[in-house]
């Protein structure tokens, strides 16, 4: 088969990242791996991140999830089977364990040896690092720029994670909404103040960032003055690899516009001039309050809108 220039371009576009989080607490209750939401997902997602594992998890083997932080309503054996079912149907999909997230702040007691064992035991492909803390301690330096109390620890966490899971295991990073702000042309990006402004800059500028395969921006829950497009530009100034713009199913608790079908398509279309741009969805299984509509979409309709906008193959496959 000979590819025309247009079809070659479309093939390249189809490689754009599309990472979706699956909320473990929203999964269906079943003892049959093939009946899980995870196993029945379509193949147009490039990565599925299972949330969330505690950094200081307790895991000694035997697929016992009790001390991991994951909240699936089924056993580890069923989860392993569901991952195998999904990968048998769609071999290119990468299944990651999302470690961290809001409230899982046990980074100083992190046990990435146990995390790596859990990844291997489940047959997963790697880890999504969702480095969040109660206060990153970011302040503006008198001479200009940003310094964060958490910088040394965040870099050490990334280094330890990659050491525990060397390539070809995948390491993706969930980047805080305003984490690339605070310096240079983004010194005045809104919102300008707070302990998280600039918290990702040191990590992404460090040599350890060579161990990252994908960055996705949590471009939501940052208030009404926040611009996802500006956040994308700020992160692109720090990171040259695959970069996904985050889309949230649930309305923001911090205010700001809803991710409607139209707004989602417009935002993603604006960043698609970047050949390594893609999308992140948070999250599968979540349903917003009120009747579902294009102005109040659930995870199914947002998944489809993202798939179509990114020109991913297989958008006709339904999301369960």
TrEMBL record:
Question: Which key words are in the record?
Answer: Hydrolase
Q: Which domain of life is it from?
A: Bacteria
Question: For this protein, what is any one GO molecular function term?
Answer: hydrolase activity
Q: Which InterPro entries match?
A: GH, Glyco_hydro18_cat
Q: Keyword Cell wall biogenesis/degradation, does the record have it?
A: no
Gene3D superfamilies named in the record: Glycosidases
Residues forming the GH18 domain are: 20-222
What this protein is called in its record is Glycoside hydrolase family 18 protein
Name the source organism: Xanthobacter aminoxidans
């Amino acid at each position: 088969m000979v590819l025309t220039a247009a079809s070659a371009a479309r093939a390249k576009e189809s490689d754009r990242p599309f990472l979706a989080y699956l909320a473990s607490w929203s999964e269906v209750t079943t003892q049959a791996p093939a009946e899980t939401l995870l196993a029945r997902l379509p193949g147009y997602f490039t990565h599925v991140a299972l949330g969330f594992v505690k950094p200081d998890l307790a895991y000694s083997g035997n697929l016992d999830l009790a001390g991991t932080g994951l909240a699936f309503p089924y056993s580890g054996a069923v989860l392993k089977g569901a991952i195998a079912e999904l990968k048998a149907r769609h071999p290119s999909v990468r299944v990651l364990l999302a470690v961290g997230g809001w409230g899982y702040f046990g980074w100083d007691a992190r046990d990435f040896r146990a995390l790596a064992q859990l990844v291997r035991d489940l047959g997963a492909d790697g880890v999504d690092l969702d480095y969040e803390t109660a206060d990153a301690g970011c302040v503006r330096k008198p001479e200009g720029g940003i310094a964060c109390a958490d910088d040394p620890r965040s870099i050490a966490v990334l280094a330890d994670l990659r050491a525990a899971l060397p390539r070809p295991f995948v390491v993706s990073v969930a980047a805080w909404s305003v984490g690339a702000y605070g310096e240079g042309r983004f010194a005045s990006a809104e919102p300008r103040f707070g302990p998280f402004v600039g918290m990702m800059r040191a990590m992404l500028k460090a040599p350890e960032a060579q161990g990252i395969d994908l960055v996705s921006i949590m471009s939501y829950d940052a208030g009404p003055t926040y611009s996802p497009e500006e956040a994308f530009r700020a992160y692109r100034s720090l990171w040259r690899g695959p970069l996904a713009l985050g889309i949230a199913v649930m309305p923001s608790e911090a205010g700001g516009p809803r991710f409607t079908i139209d707004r989602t398509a417009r935002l993603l279309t604006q960043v698609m001039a970047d050949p390594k741009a893609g999308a992140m969805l948070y999250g599968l299984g979540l349903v917003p309050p009120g009747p579902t509509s294009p102005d109040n979409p659930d995870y199914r309709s947002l998944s489809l809108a993202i798939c179509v906008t990114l020109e991913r193959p297989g958008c006709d496959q339904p999301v369960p």
